[in-house]
Amino acid sequence: MALINIYHLYPEHLNLYGDRGNMLALSRRANWHGIEANIIPVEPGTLINFSNCDLLFMGGGQDSDQKLVAEDLKGRSSEIRKAIEEGMTIFAVCGSYQLLGHYYKTTLEEKIGGLEIIDLYTEAGSKRMIGNAVISCTLWDQPRTLVGFENHAGKTFLGPAMQPLGKVITGYGNNGVDKTEGAVYKNVIGTYLHGSLLPKNPWLTDYLLQKALSYRGQIFQPQILDDSLEQQAHNNAIRLAGSRRHKRISSQV
Amino acid sequence: MGREKLEVRKDQQKLTKKGGFNNRLFKIKLLGAVWFGKVLIVFTRILGRGGTTLPGRAALRIEPGLSSALTARLAEGSLVITGTNGKTTTSALITGMLKEAGFSCIHNQSGSNMSWGVASALIGSTSWSAYPVGDCAVMEVDEGAFPGVVKGIKPRGVVVTNIYRDQLDRYGEIDLIKNSIKIGLEVQPTDGFQVINADDPSLVGIADNSKTKRWTYGLELDLPVDQFQTGGRDIKTCPRCHKKLAYDKIYFAHIGHYHCPFCSYKRPEPDVKLVNRTINPDGTALLQISLPGENFELNFPLIGTYNLYNILAAVTCAKALAIPTAFIIKASEKAVPSFGRMELFEFNGKKITMALIKNPVGANEVLRTLLAQKNRIKLLVAINDKIADGTDVSWLWDVDFEQLVAIKDNLSTIIVSGLRAWDMAVRLKYAGFNPDQIKVEEDTAMAIVQTLEQSTPEEMLFILPTYTAMLEIRRHLNKMGLGKPYWED
After folding, report:
1. Which of B273, B304, B333 is the last residue in one of the domains?
2. Considering CB atoms only, which of B233, B397, B426 is closest to A233?
3. Is-above-0.80 flag for pTM?
4. Strand-pair category, A180-181 with B105-107
């Protein structure tokens, strides 16, 4: 049986927006596809064994919790970078996504250093970007939609060579300006979308599982699953994101 | 309510007797706003709505100082109850105690708790000459609206129940909620009082610097270990040094007996304590309450640990108001579930329980009660994502629906409904339910009719709606002759 080790970073701290749902989706779908998912919760202050980690999940946290992550991982960016170059998968949401970049500049012009793993930086904005979001994602031969909910004040800008996760159809995305959302570098995916993101976008869950497996030379043999509930939830969320009611709400915030 | 009351009155006279053109204009605008609001209440009720949002909103647009002017005309002033969970029940309990003591209260009992909800409730109980009919106002107020309302109506007493994660789409991060409550506590006039839950570390951290007289309450009981520990945990870090707190006891979420091993921060000794609970043969609880120089017992009919905190908050507030113990005891015995909080209905011999769900901690408490049921259960979960529900439904993933899988043989069907019915269906699938056991009916009216048709008198139908889904379902139940319209007391 194929096996993957999923490291869950600070389940108690980085769980701001239902990030438990992302872990649940990864472990359930792994099992449904006949993959054994070994989930390893990581507590603050403990060292991650990156040579054993196939997929690292980092959820969203409050500013204070985000600082804990930064402290624990700061000294280890070279190890992380090495693992990433070799193909380790990272899925990072919201605050953790920002942390992967160079820095976060606060409204007081103070720069908080990031892990410098991918080429992006974030600046605090004056207005929170809150609401349903739909993006067109090109991780596959045919673009597929991803739907989630975003809630961030930071505006993230990608370096010139960076690929976004997708193009914004509805919502704000990285910064509300350039219509990009998230970032992809090798097998690292960062995004502002939660909701939780993975349950309603099962193709992204499967994509992450596949990448995590191939990192250790294992082959992903997907089972044919009945995803009709997920597909319905996906379609319904897209419909709601485009509804007039939602547009009115998001313009109010 | 002796000397303070008189002083408040003098202040009001100063306010209302001030002459001048601006003051007269204000009075005219106030009168207009009240009249317009009252007419709108009549119209919205003819349309079968509660009139708890629109009239207040419209009236505030005409005169933004409306709530402040009306409450200033109340002889006993006003009380504001805020916090994530327990606002509605706590404010109903406080109202009960005040009524028992002979005061008449204006109370936004339907849970419409934004600034316009407060305004609507005030207008509803105000005469056409813009004088409120009542001695005092008891208002539950949303955490986000709290600073604005406190600034406006200058309450004598403020009660803060707890701070959990709730509806982050509206406030951004939980730090913003804390900040909002902190500002509210700071702008309250310092001659009043504040009632604070000593068992909530983040709340105590906020209220620490306030100059207003502070009353604290807390549980000192041995309760069975909580199995709902996996979801909805939030603030277990020390508010002073941000390191991990240590707990001697956890009652639920982050509520309990805590101290920080790294700095001196610890749970304050509560002024009012619940020291013992015994369950009476009829299912009600006999609670033993202890405060400096006084011990007394009261019978309390509402179930659930969270209701122990609600009654304790109410008792503490009543004590701060110097209400005699006999009235407190009498009112506690008469407590009934508030609007949508474990309300019971019966339709052709079929039993229905409706319990509002709106955030992980509250929803887990509801599931806990549901798990204790011996009857066969039918479940209807209705999730909307309107503003009052929270437009972000990701909180559903922090609710421990996994616990329900353990009793799935005792669950005949699960019907999911509402604007976010499909999200809920996916949530249950990933909790471990077979998709065949989940039925989706987006329309709440259809869902309630079909579910009732299929249920039997041996079953208990549990309806778990979000706030606006509850209003919809309640309208359908009212049409079927169940319950009273929610704007009637």
Report:
1. B333
2. B426
3. no
4. unpaired
